[in-house]
Amino acid sequence: MIMTKTKIIDIHIHGINGYDTRTTVEDHILQIAEIMGSQGISEIIPTIFPATINVMRANLAVIKKAMELQKTEDRSQKTEAKIIGVHLEGPFLNPLKCGALNAITFIEPSEYNFKELIEGFEDIIKIITIAPEINHTAKLIKKITDMGIIVSMGHSDATYVEAEAGFHAGAKGITHIFNAMRGFHHRELGIAGFGLLNQDIYIEVIADPYHLHPQTLELIFKIKNPERIILISDSVKETTPFTKYQGVTNAHGKLLGGCMTIAESSKRLIEIGFDKDIIMKCITENPERYLIQ
User: Hey, which residues are catalytic here?
Assistant: First the structure.
């Protein structure tokens, strides 16, 4: 575990050790916070899977209650990570790049659907992942951004130009770069190429041993502005801390999520030769700057 006086922040976490955000029990969310806190994580943004609007709203309500409990109860004896908001990973995503998510739940990125989804929870939603190429999403991206919510582009088949248009509409980040998005091609760099070459947009990086090849990680850190790289866990309920790190997969071998906390993945990167100061900023200063700008 990496210990630091600076806040370690994970902006993309679905769950850990048997618990995840698909729950109606606020104690499950608090258990996630406690487990992550015990691993050295200071703050987390629980990430909600795409589902029907009613289910996602129920998940939002549970997280909001857990946040209220953290503020009102005496939890001084617990080593909890502070829950600082919610990340909605969908449902305005591209079925062609669903990854491990359920494409059946993806819906039209209309202002009506957006309002139905977030009404009453505007104060806790920090990030929404959207595929920018779906049905001229620029207007919705601008609306969300104007509300003070960060738009991250992901689960996307966007071309370079479409990703650039999303950025100019207000998108500030790219969700787990290279994973669940259009591949990099020498005649069409796609959203991944845009994320690497644009030095202003932030990119999430899953740095466990399975999601990205070591040389892909090397490419990212050689090309990308290091102040715009954010390490995330993308951990799920199947993720178990401090075990032998086996890929978290389904019966067909598809990756379901990350297998490491960001405290451990950052330690791993440092051990294999990445610059310690840069890596530490990717879990402290960079996510903090991303969230407050």
Answer: 234
